[in-house]
Design a protein that fits this description.
Distance between the termini of chain B: 42 Å
Helix content of chain B: 40-55%
Largest sheet of chain A: none
CATH topology of chain A: Sodium/glucose cotransporter
Oligomer: heterodimer
Mean pLDDT of chain B: 84
Shape of chain B: elongated
Strand content of chain A: under 5%
Number of strands of chain A: 0
Order of helices and strands of chain B: HEEH
Largest sheet of chain B: 2 strands, antiparallel
Distance between the termini of chain A: 64 Å
Radius of gyration of chain B: 20 Å
Strand order of the largest sheet of chain B: 1-2
Order of helices and strands of chain A: HHHHHHHHHHHHHHHHHHHHHH
Strand content of chain B: 5-15%
CATH architecture of chain A: Up-down Bundle
Shape of chain A: globular
Mean pLDDT of chain A: 85
Number of domains of chain A: 1
Number of helices of chain B: 2
Low-confidence stretches of chain B: 74-79
Number of strands of chain B: 2
Helix content of chain A: over 70%
Structural class of chain A: mainly alpha
Number of helices of chain A: 22
Radius of gyration of chain A: 22 Å
């Protein structure tokens, strides 16, 4: 019960923070969606990092290291340190400058202008929203699993409907936990907008980093049971099975082709929106440099804890998604309550940006774009954004009630989809010869290859699905790149006016 | 340094595939008694990435973008 009370206090604090930010709201949709381009380096770093480090980073990485070994760090953490910053540097800063110069709020606005095609926005809209849904799903599933795992044994049998109690083992059923987290995030996003989201992200990023390190130390002491931390670390690591301390369980080609997965950040719609909140181009410098180091601070302890868990016989039958919450629960009621708050902080700091982003793209790319001359008031814009967010969250919550997937697997499918659109954004920024037809061909090739491969993987149920030993993302990126280049070269180039607008020597 | 930074980024991507050079793939050895060798190596890649990006923003920053100002009405964007 103590854990539950601490989690409730934390959620209340968060609501208070979101409501405080709403007092600074300037009443315009631009302020609601982009915080009036006022975000400085520290807040940008925290919000970019908090947004990209999802449930995937804490719950997913620990579970995956438990299942596959410490090679998980190289597959996604060290590669992301190189490639995320590369995307911020090469893509983020340029898109910020286009957004600042021409007043864009969403990716579709940029692509419509750059490729002289109104309908391209209409094609991109369902694809981007469709790919954000599994990303949201990761957070919703992990939030429910975390609360259920940590509160196990709190309630007597019969407290909740029997079908809900099955996996909860006397804790808060994941159906309820997920719903409460969605509700809290919705409230502070609705009241605080982008400013509230950025503040809440910064606050939660600090919370989950600090509590993440505390979790690491506490669990090391518990598993190692020695006097000093170093001795405990050695004792805990000594029990790691050999196959988990190396990479023998990961295919070499799979590891190599994982390098393409982090390219997804170049096309995340919520990161695009965060980039546009920056006060100036120079604001990006701190996030570019610090991002790899912060990834290391979060992922290294999580991966090590997952490997330790693989050496504990009592945990052998636990689902990978539940490994972190179950380990945290052993830290005693008070500490495990605080640590749970840290895990939920990481989850919510991604959900909030994603919620806000899907509302933004619906209002901007559909409602305002097709308003047919009718004036839409500031109040209406914010209302439409909120209604769409609620609809998507309801759909996501519905999916979370279906058969559960590994958080990590679901994340990789989602990221692979966004990576397959990376050739489009790279070419749009740097290749003058990219054409409207080439862009359509690229988006369609990405969408079709993703859908076919996802279907072949039994919709994510097979966590080890590969194509000839390679990650499916290779096929998707290759298909979209070839389609983009070939079709662009044989179709009419963009007008000189458009090229002059985007390519200034 | 402008030309060195892209080479450093390329080197990081190559070094990321440590098995091509150091053969940590099947090595379960624990460094300092608690850190698997492959994990320590990749933590080193993360640190090297931070240093490389520091050099990138110091020597390769697109200064001209710092002076970007709005040109068109925001409500008209993309419409």
């Amino acid at each position: 019960m103590t854990q539950l009370i601490i989690v409730c206090i934390y959620l209340t604090l968060l609501l208070g923070l979101g409501l405080s930010a709403s007092r600074l709201f300037r009443g315009t949709s631009k302020d609601y969606l982009l915080a009036s381009h006022s975000i400085g380096p520290f807040l940008l770093l925290m919000s970019l990092f908090g947004t990209t480090m999802t449930a995937f980073a804490l719950v997913g990485s620990t579970g995956e290291a438990f299942a596959e070994g410490v090679g998980v760090y190289g597959m996604l953490a060290s590669s992301s340190g190189i490639i995320h910053s590369l995307c911020f540097f090469l893509i983020g800063v340029k898109l910020w400058s286009f957004g600042r110069r021409h007043g864009y709020t969403t990716q579709a606005q940029f692509f419509r202008d750059r490729l002289e095609s109104d309908r391209l926005g209409l094609l991109l809209f369902p694809i981007l929203v469709g790919l954000v849904i599994p990303y949201l799903l990761i957070g919703v599933i992990a939030a429910g699993a975390t609360i259920a795992g940590v509160t196990a044994g709190t309630f007597d049998p019969g407290t909740f409907p029997a079908s809900w109690e099955e996996g909860a083992r006397g804790g808060v059923p994941s159906e309820i936990g997920s719903l409460v987290i969605c509700g809290v995030v919705l409230v502070y996003v609705f009241f605080g907008g982008m400013r509230g989201t950025a503040w809440a992200n910064a606050f939660q990023t600090v919370v989950f980093m600090v509590l993440g390190l505390v979790t690491f130390v506490v669990i090391a002491k518990q598993l190692g049971e020695r006097e000093t931390l170093l001795e405990s670390l050695r004792a805990a690591s000594a029990a790691i099975p050999e196959e988990k301390a190396s990479r023998v369980e990961i295919g070499r080609l799979t590891f190599f082709t994982y390098l393409l997965v982090p390219l997804s950040v170049g096309m995340f719609p919520h990161l695009f929106q965060h980039w546009l909140t920056a006060r100036s181009a120079a604001t990006f410098k701190l996030p570019v440099v610090a991002h790899p180091l912060m990834i290391m601070v979060v992922w290294l302890p999580c991966v090590l804890m997952g490997a330790w868990a693989a050496g504990v016989p009592e945990l052998a039958e636990i689902q990978p998604n539940l490994i972190l919450p179950v380990m945290v629960r052993q830290a005693g009621p008070l500490l495990s309550g605080l640590l749970t708050a840290g895990i939920l902080a990481a989850i919510m700091s991604s959900l909030d940006s994603q919620f806000l982003c899907i509302g933004t793209i619906f209002t901007t790319d559909i409602v305002l774009h097709y308003r047919r001359g009718r004036e839409v008031s500031e109040r209406e814009k914010v209302l439409y954004a909120r209604l769409f967010i609620v609809a998507i969250v309801a759909i996501t919550y519905g999916f979370s009630l279906l058969e559960s997937r590994r958080v990590f697997t679901l994340g990789v499918w989602c990221f692979s989809g966004f990576s397959s659109l990376f050739p489009l954004v790279l070419a749009a920024v740097y290749w003058r010869r990219l054409t409207k037809a080439g862009a359509y061909a690229s988006v369609l090739a990405a969408a079709i290859s993703w859908a076919v491969l996802f279907w072949q993987s039994q919709f994510g149920l097979n966590p080890n699905f590969t194509v000839a030993g390679m990650m499916p993302v290779v096929v998707m990126v290759a298909a979209s790149s070839v389609a983009l280049v070939v079709v662009s070269l044989v179709s009419r180039p963009p007008s000189e006016a458009t090229l002059a607008k985007f390519f200034r020597e | 340094m402008r030309y060195v930074v892209p080479l450093l980024v390329a080197a990081l991507l190559v070094l990321h595939q440590d098995d091509w050079f150091f053969g940590f793939w099947a090595e379960p050895k624990l460094v300092f008694g608690f850190l698997p060798a492959t994990l320590l190596y990749h933590a080193g890649i993360s640190l090297a990435a931070g240093l490389t990006w520091y050099l990138a923003v110091t020597f390769c920053w697109p200064e001209e973008l710092d002076a970007v100002e709005p040109e068109s009405s925001e409500s008209e964007a993309g419409a």
